[in-house]
Amino acid sequence: GWTDRVAVANRAERVAQVQQGMMLFKLFMGAITGISLLVGGIGVMNVLLAAVAERTREIGVRRAVGAARRHILAQFLAESVTISGVGSVAGIILGLAGAYGITALIRANSRALMYAGVSAGTIVVAVTATVIVGLTFGLYPAMKASRACLSSAFAV
User: Fold this and answer.
1) Residue 119: enclosing H or E segment and its boundaries?
2) 34 three-class SS
3) Quick one: which of 65, 118, 62, 71 has its CA closest to 93?
4) What's 111's DSSP letter?
5) What tens digit of pLDDT does each residue of 66-97 get?
6) Is the separation of the CB atoms in 137 and 41 below 8 Å?
7) Which of 87, 68, 46, 84 has the alpha carbon at shortest distance from 147?
8) Which own/partner pairs from 36-42 qualify as long-range (CB within 8 Å, at least 24 positions apart)?
9) Distance of alpha carbon 33 from its chain centroid, rounded?
10) Model pTM greater than 0.70?
């Protein structure tokens, strides 16, 4: 008669459902991250293309005094990495401030013991990704600047 009084439940289906939900959430967040990196990269490229257009005289003068194409390419790639690096640092600071601020508000307004967690690996991945995006999207404007013609740089 113990089978009438005891019920054995297997939560494997529920665990599988939760795992599938977590996987979908990770994919969704990855898609949002990818779109954000793409938009940021396009922004960096637009800024650098505008800089190239405005600085054709400077590029021409540098070429005239002996700067090689690789020097100009390196200059604009360095600018690209600097822009994306500064954006990365600002994003990390704002993200950490937001995470710690939100968890502090949750703790203050509820009895939940919730704390923000961050790892060094996450920060390294974020900085690496932004530097790669800066290099990738800065390559076209840098190549355009390095190919700038000397005659067009001195045209009035």
Assistant:
1) none
2) helix
3) 118
4) S
5) 888 999 999 999 999 999 999 999 999 999 99
6) yes
7) 68
8) 37/129, 37/130, 37/133, 40/84, 40/87, 40/130, 40/133, 41/133, 41/134, 41/136, 41/137, 42/137
9) 8
10) yes
